[in-house]
């Protein structure tokens, strides 16, 4: 078989593959059923072809590496030879320049000697000292010229030696290049031998192409079916993941809605029960008050009758006194000289009768009038709309109003401008978080989480940072307040007011009237103000003998969600408070109400 280059061999293999591909595309008779031996022979033939191709690739790679190494060596030798020739040329030019310099110096010395001899011949008649000086000068010039000539001859010998060394190196490089050429020739011979072996394997390759083509077609069909199945599985998995994601989102939304609705239902249930109890008690109180008013009216009528009887008796006595005075006046008086200008003096009874009648009337009306003119009164100072979706609580740190939202956000508002929050914080890391009450103090910031019945303490400077959370004493906490030294909370199930310790873990319970349902609390001085959602009223309590005693109560038309101190009141015995009011019949959204609660004493403030 003739020698074939690797490129020609690769082209021949590609041509055979194209030929096989064209044969596979044309219709052919169905192949006979293959036996086990045919499958084994086809597998062996395929492995043989793969092995031959891998060997041929390795040999080609090796030949390519050898050729590249030979080319690199030849290029390096050529570059080194060019460098040596350039250096040799420069050395020859330098030697020629040095020779020219030596010749010029020798000629200069000769000219100087000739000039000296001529001057010596011209001045032979000169003194002997000048002759010795000139002779010494000539000798020094000869010695320097001889030394310079010796030095240049030594330099020339050294450069000739270096040139010989360069020539030897060049001969070695030429020998190395010859050896590389011989190795390349041997590699070409090996390549020709491998080409012959590859030509022998060509026949076997042609015999196995049909089997390989059939197996390739079957494999392509199976790969296509497998790809379709994998694509379908991927689509099903993607659809399942999308359904799972949608289900998780809907589940989270339903869970949040359920938590919110459960809390709202519990609050409404408590409010409904409180309203029913309040309605029953109000009905009983109304009946009792009606009976008391009837009795009071009867007593008042009896008292009025007695007063009228006493007034009649007093009038009769006054009439008797007036009659006696009139009788005394009708008596003939003694003749006393009178001045003509002096008018007659009125009687004593006529002068004091109106005053006595007015005193009697005031004595009768003093008690009911005093009860009406004194007592606690509530005055609305102003209302401001609040642009929040679902606020739940209110508190004040002295300069800003803090409002919590059902979604778990904390908003800081400027009391002078409520249009936009100054700060908006999102508390994270607590899971389901539903703040329903706030309590602020010096270096204190608390929220009440109704979703998990816990008290959360925040960083005062950055309330988004949670310091810790402690469970509440009761299962249904509704309100929170700070008195300047301790934290207070109220539980709607236990119907108890708790005073917490320094770490909010220990709590002491205080009893409140069972008909109260506080939803907001705020300490103002020594009084605890709270909103009773059952009676819809603001109430104040004081601690006396380790128990809470009601001080005052004032009805409120709005539903209060939170209370905060509004600052120092301008009137004595009066307190101002800010309340977070919910929607009502007069208002669709939330609002901040400012109230003044004070004692009315014969004045209406």
* Overall mean confidence score, pLDDT: 79
Structural class: alpha+beta
Beta-strand portion reads 15-25%
Low-confidence stretches: 23-29, 335-343, 601-605
- Largest sheet: spatial strand order: 1-20-19-18
**CATH superfamily annotation of the domain at 376-601:** TolB, C-terminal domain
Q: Say what oligomer this is.
A: single chain
Series of secondary-structure elements, N-terminal to C-terminal? HHHHEEEEEEEEEEEEEEEEEEEE
Distance between the termini: 127 Å
Number of helical segments with 4 or more residues = 4
Helix content: 55-70%
Tell me the overall shape. Answer: elongated
Number of strand elements: 20
CATH architecture label name of the domain at 376-601: 6 Propeller
Largest sheet: 4 strands, antiparallel
The CATH topology of the domain at 376-601 turns out to be: Neuraminidase
Gyration radius from CA atoms, angstroms? 62 Å
- CATH class category name of the domain at 376-601: Mainly Beta
Report on this structure:
By secondary structure, the protein is an alpha+beta fold. The chain has a domain at 376-601: Neuraminidase. The chain is 56% helix and 22% strand. The protein is built from 4 helices and 20 strands. The protein has helices at 6-25, 36-122, 128-330, 348-373, and strands at residues 374-386, 391-396, 401-405, 409-413, 423-426, 435-441, 444-449, 454-458, 466-471, 477-482, 487-491, 496-500, 507-511, 518-524, 527-532, 537-543, 548-555, 560-565, 574-581, 590-601. The strands form 5 sheets. It has a 4-stranded antiparallel sheet with strand order 1-20-19-18. Strands 2-3-4-5 form a 4-stranded antiparallel sheet, with no helix packed on it. α1 (6-25) runs parallel beside α3 (128-330), α2 (36-122) packs across α3 and α3 (128-330) crosses α4 (348-373). The longest helix has 203 residues, at 128-330. The N and C termini lie far apart (127 Å). Mean pLDDT is 79; it is low at 23-29, 335-343 and 601-605.
């Amino acid at each position: 078989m003739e020698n074939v280059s690797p490129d020609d061999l690769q082209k021949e293999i590609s041509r055979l593959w194209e030929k096989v591909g064209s044969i596979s595309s044309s219709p052919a008779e169905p192949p006979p059923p293959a036996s086990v031996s045919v499958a084994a022979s086809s597998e062996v033939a395929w492995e043989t072809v793969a092995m031959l191709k891998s060997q041929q690739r390795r040999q080609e790679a090796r030949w390519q590496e050898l050729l590249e190494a030979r080319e690199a060596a030849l290029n390096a030798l050529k570059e080194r030879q060019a460098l040596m020739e350039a250096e040799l040329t420069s050395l020859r030019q330098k030697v020629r320049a040095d020779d020219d310099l030596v010749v010029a110096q020798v000629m200069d010395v000769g000219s100087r000697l000739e000039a000296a001899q001529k001057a010596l011949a011209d001045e032979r008649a000169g003194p002997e000292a000048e002759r010795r000086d000139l002779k010494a000068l000539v000798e020094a010039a000869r010695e320097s010229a001889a030394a310079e000539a010796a030095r240049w001859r030594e330099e020339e010998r050294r450069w000739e030696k270096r040139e010989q060394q360069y020539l030897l190196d060049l001969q070695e490089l030429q020998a190395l290049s010859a050896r590389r050429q011989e190795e390349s020739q041997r590699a070409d011979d090996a390549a020709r031998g491998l080409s012959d072996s590859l030509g022998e394997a060509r026949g076997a390759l042609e015999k196995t192409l049909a089997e390989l083509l059939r197996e390739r077609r079957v494999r392509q069909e199976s790969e296509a079916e497998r790809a379709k199945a994998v694509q379908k599985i991927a689509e099903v998995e993607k659809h399942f993941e999308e359904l799972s994601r949608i289900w998780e989102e809907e589940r989270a939304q339903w869970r949040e809605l359920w938590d919110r609705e459960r809390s709202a239902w519990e609050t409404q249930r408590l409010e409904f029960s409180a309203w029913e109890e309040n309605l029953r008690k109000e009905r009983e109180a109304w009946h009792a008050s009606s009976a008391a008013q009837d009795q009071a009216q009867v007593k008042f009528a009896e008292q009025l009758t007695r007063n009228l009887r006493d007034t009649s008796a007093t009038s009769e006595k006054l009439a008797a006194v007036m009659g006696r005075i009139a009788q005394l006046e009708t008596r003939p008086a003694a003749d006393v000289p009178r001045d003509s200008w002096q008018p007659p003096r009125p009687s004593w009874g006529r002068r004091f009768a109106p005053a006595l009648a007015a005193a009697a009337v005031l004595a009768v009306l003093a008690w009911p009038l005093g009860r009406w003119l004194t007592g606690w009164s509530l005055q609305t100072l102003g209302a401001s709309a609040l642009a929040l979706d679902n606020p739940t609580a209110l508190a004040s740190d002295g300069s800003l109003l803090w409002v919590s939202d059902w979604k778990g956000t904390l908003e800081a508002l400027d009391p002078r401008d409520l249009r936009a929050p100054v700060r908006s914080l999102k508390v994270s890391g607590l899971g389901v978080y539903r703040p329903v009450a706030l309590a602020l103090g010096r270096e204190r910031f608390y929220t009440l989480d109704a979703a998990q019945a816990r008290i959360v303490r925040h960083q005062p400077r950055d309330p988004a940072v949670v310091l810790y959370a402690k469970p509440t004493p009761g299962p249904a906490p509704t309100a929170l307040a700070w008195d300047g030294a301790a934290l207070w909370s109220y539980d709607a199930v236990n119907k108890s007011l708790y005073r917490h310790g320094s770490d909010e873990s220990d709590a002491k319970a205080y009893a409140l009237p069972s008909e109260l349902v506080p939803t907001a609390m705020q300490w103002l001085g020594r009084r605890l103000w709270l909103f009773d959602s059952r009676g819809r009223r603001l109430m104040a309590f004081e601690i006396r003998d380790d128990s809470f005693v009601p001080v005052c109560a004032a009805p409120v038309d709005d539903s209060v969600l939170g209370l905060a101190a509004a600052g120092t009141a301008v009137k004595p015995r009066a307190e101002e408070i800010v309340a977070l009011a919910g929607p009502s019949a007069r208002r669709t959204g939330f609002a901040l109400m400012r109230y003044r609660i004070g004692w009315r004493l014969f004045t209406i403030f």
